[in-house]
Design a protein that fits this description.
Blueprint (H helix, E strand, L loop, with lengths): L1 E6 L5 E6 L2 E7 H5 L8 H8 L7 E5 L13 E4 L1 H12 L5 E12 L4 E11 L2 E2 L5 E3 L4 H12 L7 H7 L28 H26 L6 E5 L6 H10 L5 E4 L8 H13 L21 H9 L4 E5 L2 H9 L4 E4 L13 E5 L6 H10 L8 E5 L3 H4 L11 E4 L17 E7 L5 H14 L3 E6 L10 H9 L5 E4 L4 E5 L3
Helix pairs in contact: 3-8, 5-6, 6-7, 10-13
Amino acid sequence: MKILGYYNGHDASYAILENGIPILHNELERFNRKKFTSCDAYKWFKTKENIDNIDYVASAHQFGKCRHVTEKPFKQISHHKAHAANAFYSSPFSDALILSIDGNGWSAEKNAEVSTCIHRGVSGKLLDTPILESSSPNFGCIWHNTTRYVLNQARGTEGTIMAMAALGQPKYCNDINFDTDDGLNLKKYYKTEQDKYDIAASLQLATEQRVYSILKTYISADDKNICMTGGVSLNCVLTTKIYEWFPNIENVFCDPVPYDGGLSLGAARYVWHNVLGNPKINDIKNKISYLGKTYSEHEIINNIKNNKSVIMKKCDDDEVIELLDKQNIISVFGGGSESGRRALGNRSILADPRNVKMKNTINEKIKHRESFRPFAPSILREEVKNWFERDIDSPYMSFAVKFKNNVKDKVPAVLHLDDTGRLQTVTPDYNKWYHGFISKWFEKTGVPILLNTSFNDREPIVETPEHAINCFLGTNIDYLYFRDYGLIVTKNKG
């Protein structure tokens, strides 16, 4: 049975579940190269896929508007219920408390906009009735407004503010009221360069304090598992604090696509499990987020041959390891693209984390972003205990954990100012190629970590071979590796 889920708002997307397992997830921005795109995602789906193969259609609410579909059975799901369904049903838990926090999302049950919501999953099923639905605190609104209109950052760069917080002092926490403010009152404090870091630190700490207060109210002594979703759960500093705040919590799981681009997946999952009554699926295939289209060798070679600015030759992983060791920066393209904001080895830029200059080189010459922005350490899961103070799973780069003191100086390119790293734990189950590749790097260097950042430059992550070649040519990346077919591309300087 196939279920189509879609969402029309910003971060428009559609997803297909087959017998409860996601087999495809497309976000429009990956194709039109415009971040946060809205569209009629159902109409977009019908231009790319076959509706005749679909048995059921589900949509997440957008601002109370209903999209009636007549071709197939149809169900509309409340915004935060779709978020909660995606988080819980992709998690490894049978029982969990589920916190969804973002900007406004429509609740059919309340007939109103909701920004903070708590559900429970019990015995493998998401309970329909939330235990909290509130328009306050609106974390998403204040973070958005502070990012864009106080600190003059581009839309969608809230992660920049999180990174900035490490350089500031939280002087203005008492001036932030998530129940009544829109965040714009912080603008009066922005007079010097240091002020912006202090504002960022204040917003970060105030957010942590308020999330702690909410969770403290609803966590019971018997709770062991928490799921986090909604765009605010991309704040990896905050999610890591949950382990410190609540010693009884053993596991925190963060939705791999927690922002609105994941609502299509959540709506479809809700129909499969809650409407159709199917049990929770614990297959690893239900948790892997490489849900983009795959591209054939023929398609890739044609794209290379049609561009006279590049040259290709055969290559293998061992040669690429050598190139990385010689301080080359390599972009990697293989398999289906990652769902979510974070590249996890299929659409990644990789580099040597041991090079103290590498972070600045990539920020200046490739990503064109602020020097304080850190890069993620992709690490073999079995080596986490030897490198980080907390031995946890983080397959989607959801947590910022401190490096151990005796090893942190070995990987300066992935070390943030507060000695943390937003780690990606890599296992053969999640990405067999990437685990094997890092293992080869470990054998050569003694370091089980690679610097990993998304394959893009101030645009959505590359989706197609053409996008990959264009990004490669538009930046100072040294090589482009189409790893599925053993092809490496260099710039034609002739």
